[in-house]
Amino acid sequence: MARPYSLSRREITLVLFSVMIFLVFYNFDATSDFFANPNLPGIYSNPSADGGLDMDIYGDWVSDERHISSVHKQQEEEDASEGDIWLKTDRIPEAQKQVIFGDIGVNDGFMHWGTDIPETRIVKHVAGFSIMDNVIMCNGTIFIVTDSPSSFPSLGSIASSADNSREDPLPGEWNMLSIEQARDILGAYGGLIQGTSWLSYDAIPSNYTLFSLWKTHSSLNTSTSSDPFHPPRRLFFPNIPPYKGIPPPTRTPIIRRQRSDSGFHPYLPKAAFPSLGLMYKEDWEDYALMEVPFVFERLVVADFRAAARSAIDDVPPFALPLVGLNASKEWWESIRQNLAKFLHVDHRPQDLNSGQEKTVVTYISRQDATTGSRLRRADHDALVNALETLHESNDFEVKIVSSEGPWVERLSAVAQSNVVLGVYGDSLADSVFMRPSEHSALMEFFPSDVFTRDAETAVRSLGIRYIAWWNDLRFETDSLPSVAPGIDSAQEVQIDPALVVHAILEMVTRT
Fold it and tell me: What is the DSSP secondary-structure string of 242-261?
C-alpha cells in the first residue's frame, strides 16, 4: 500500500507565500491604506504638502470627482460668489434635485393603460400657443383624446399644416379622437415621454421661439395657478432637420455640414436653458416609425403661423402669449440670470442711482453683415466717434460689437448693458437679455417708412423702454408709426448720431 504524499516544509512555505501575495493584491486599496505612511503623499492626498518632485508633477490640484481639472480652479474661485452657477452635487438641495432630475427610473418609459386610455386636458391656450396634458403621438400624428371636443380650441388655432403653413393641420398631422375611438386606434399600451416637452411646429424658425415658449410655460407659474411648475426637458422641432441640404453619400470623405437655422444660436439653449434637450425632424420620425403610441405627460406647443391667422392689430404672432397669458412679473428673470451667470457677468439688476456703477451702452453694428440693412458708412463712423466721446465720461462704459462677431462677446456685452442700440433686424432679439435698471432702453434704427414691432413688443413686455428712429425722427411708445415691413431688406439706414447720444444722456439723467 502506497504511503500518502505529504508536503515538504519548502512547499508549504511557497503555498502560504502565494496565498498571502494574492490576498494583498486582491485587496490592494485596503492594504495600501493599512501600510501607508501618513507623511507620504497618497492617491488622494495633496502633493503640495511635501513639495519637491511631486509638486512638479502634480501641481497643487487636488483630485475631486465632482470637477473637471481644467476648470477646477476657476470654479473654486467662483465658489463663494453670490449666485454661483458651478454647483457641487452636495450643495444641491434634495428638493431642487427632484425638480431638475425627477424620480424617473429605467422602467418608467412604458405605460399599459388597458381600456383606461389617458385623456387629454387643455391647461392654457391662446392662438398658436397651448399647454396640454396627455397628448398622444402615434405614427407621426398628434392625437387629442377627449369626449368633450367643445372644451378645446380648434385644431387650426393650435397648429398649422406642415405642408402649407397657411392652412389648418391635415388629419394625418393632428387629429381629435373620442375615448372609444382612441381605444380602437391606439391600443392598450404605449411609451411615456415624462415631464414637460416643448413642441415648435413651425417649419420656418423665429428668433423669438424660446422667448415665446418660456412665456407660455411661465403662465403656469402664477400665485393663482394650481398646476406644478417644472422646467422643460426637451424641445422638438418636427419640421426642421438638424442639418441643411441633402446628406452626402456615405462613402465620401467626411464633410462638415451646416446646421439648420433654429432661430437662435446653438449655444443659447445650453447656457440659458441647461435642462433642455433639442430634438429635430429625424428624432421625431424615429418616434413615428416605431409604430407605438407615445404619451406626452405635458406638451407646450408653439405654432407662429396658427398665431398669425388669429393675430390682432399689429401684435406680432410670437407675442400673443406676451399679451394673452398671465405670468409672474419676474417670469423672464431666471432665464436672463442663467445666461449672465454662464457668461460670468453681474446678473443682479442694476441701481444706477447708487452712483457706484456706470451706465453700459452697447452698439450692435451690422456693418460686417452680408445681408440685411446697415447704417450709412458716414453715419456709422459718426456714431462710433460720438459713443467713444461718451465713453470718456466717468459715468459711461461703451461697447461696440459686431452682429457677426463671436456669440460670447456679443451676448456678454448685451447682458451687461442698460442701453442697446442698432439697426433693425434679428440681432436685436438678444436685447431681452440686457441688464434690468430704471433706465434700461432699446434704440432701433429703421429706414424711413419702415417699421416692425418685434423688438419693441419683446422688450416692452419686460419693462424696457423703447425708442425707434427714422433718421432724425424719434418715436416712443405713445407715438409709434404704423407697421410697414418694407420690401427691400438691405437698405442703407440714416441717423443723426448727435440726437441719438443726446437721447441716451436724457434717459440716464431723468428721474
Answer: SBSSPPPPTTSPP-PPPBPP
